[in-house]
């Protein structure tokens, strides 16, 4: 296959979508894959084999194939994979060689330890087997069955293995940020592919080296779907080394990308400065409500109930809803919990994936401010049901903190889910969130750093809630510009360039 474009509107593409998670709940990846499959394209999603996810399944005409990666195994140097990392090839090669040689040495010591243990056990068994002869010829057998050297060797090998594994893991963990890009590409490019792709759609930077690697082999086109501004997510506790690695990787790989997608206009502008070929297409992460009504609080009951009944709260008690992963300080929920001290009758419900460490953190904050009885942590509901589930809140909230450009330009799917639920919202004073809410007159911005300001904004909306509800004009704008129907139209238009 040569990757040339054939001008045939009826042509169906082989599309590989790459994602770093198991894609059981990655709503954006699933929505885009389904959109492309509905057009008759042959869509395969390659995801990580982890958790309870099957190694392969078919859902809505999309084939999901999962493969193990990020494993505790020897990752050998591979020139094809290393060539994907531009100026960082030498750095990666040196670190990989150093780290995995320590692993090999440690496991060699363990092998010697096991062999020595077997020798000692065998010798002792033979001694017991011939113990009568041993008594007659004690002087001879004392020497034959002397295990002093072997026991010493066993202790030495054991220490060498324990120390070696500890050193390997410490060194590997220190480099894991860099290694995971190499590991994913290495494992993906080691797969056997039954068909050759026409287009490879890389979701997030983690998967882009793998996508470029396969595209170099077969001439496929590459789409990079930038869910985040990766350089702004990189930890900053290493003097900028990780951020530089990301920027170098983008500089090296972006020239081989054919089309780019961003999640909001600010992210599109940011990536255009790096991509330069053309303005990335903005495809927002709005919910797919195909066939569902978005009338405020006039929906058929879900089997899972609704957020208010799940908190055992009657109507009339103000309820603030948050949807999505809790995170810690950067997501700002600790500020909202503290804000509850200024609004005594108000409750907070957090709907999303539960993590014991994050739950414990927020509950400790709630205990500190004596509001634990007004904080409710609820399990996630299916993505398609989120707008309907949260519709019985009084206010939706998104208190992201301005900790990085990635947060400053955030336009998370939780905003769209709450908007399509008809919920007025309190959002952080950040440009994309503020623009979205104000364009629909669907809430207010707040000082996300100040609990008292958060409390005042919540109170203002609760007292005058009808002012911030969707009307016919804003509802039409929401559906015309922000619905998934509108977003998938842009995705399909982009893919026409490959047909």
Content of β-strand? 5-15%
Q: What is the CA-atom radius of gyration, in angstroms? A: 29 Å
Compute the number of strand runs: 14
Described by strand count, sense and barrel closure, the largest sheet is:
8 strands, mixed
Largest beta sheet: what is the strand line-up?
3-4-2-1-5-6-7-8
Number of H/I helices? 19
Outline, from the CA principal axes? globular
Class derived from helix and strand content: alpha/beta
First-last Cα distance: 14 Å
Q: List segments where confidence is low: pLDDT < 50 over at least 5 consecutive residues.
A: 1-6
DSSP helix fraction: 40-55%
Q: What's the rounded overall pLDDT mean?
A: 89
Structure in words:
The protein is of the alpha/beta class and 499 residues long. Helix content is 47%, strand content 13%. The protein is built from 19 helices and 14 strands. The chain has helices spanning 27-38, 79-82, 89-129, 131-136, 138-144, 148-189, 208-218, 241-253, 265-275, 307-310, 333-339, 356-368, 386-390, 405-408, 413-420, 431-439, 451-463, 472-482, 484-496, and strands spanning 14-18, 42-48, 56-59, 62-67, 199-203, 221-226, 259-262, 281-282, 319-323, 347-351, 375-378, 395-398, 425-428, 443-446. The strands form 2 sheets. An 8-stranded mixed beta sheet has the order 3-4-2-1-5-6-7-8, sandwiched between helices. Helix 16 (431-439) links the parallel strand 13 and strand 14 (443-446). The chain starts with 13 loop residues before the first strand and ends with a helix. The model is unreliable at 1-6 (pLDDT under 50).
